[in-house]
Amino acid sequence: MRKHSHSVADNILDQQFDPSRPNQAWAGDVTYLRTAEGWMYLAIVMDLYSRRIIGWSINKRMTVFLVNKAMSMAINTRQPNNGVIFHSDRGSQ
Predict the structure, then answer these.
(1) Exposure string over 11-49, b if 16+ CB within 10 A, otherwise e
(2) Structure pTM?
(3) Residues 58-85 pLDDT 10s
């Protein structure tokens, strides 16, 4: 749960999820899924232009590390210029 004392970034995308080029806007989320090892959390980063998953991470615990690992994969894979926007639902992660 987000603490109300923390600052919140402006919603720059304003529900405009159709960028005109790659690496302009990314979105991320965390979900959970049942696996042979039990319930696991999956964090993803998607390029909103191509709708491709460009970063992901899976773990038994929903932590900042889980989300940071997915973001690091996306950055290392795409090596975007400055200015890429990352959009999330502002959940607890």
Answers:
(1) eebeeeeebeebbbbbbbbbeeeeeeeeebbbbbbbbbb
(2) 0.81
(3) 999 999 999 999 999 999 999 998 989 8
